[in-house]
Amino acid sequence: MNRKITSREVISRIASGKYKNIGFIHEIADHSVEDIAAEILADAALPEISATDSDLQARHLDHIHDLRNHERV
Asked: What is residue 65's predicted lDDT score, i.e. its pLDDT?
């Protein structure tokens, strides 16, 4: 079976945790092979979250409040 997947799909699978313990990622194009693991892993890296617990709780409560406001008719 010859199935091609896009780099976007690979990035998504890495970020979601579906792909783990990656040793290499090869891109094959025009009869050449290139290891693009470092590039793909950098693209899949999750951003650092610097918010404190209280900030996260406040955002969560604000979100719930906003949802309730949108439910009203």
From this structure: 78
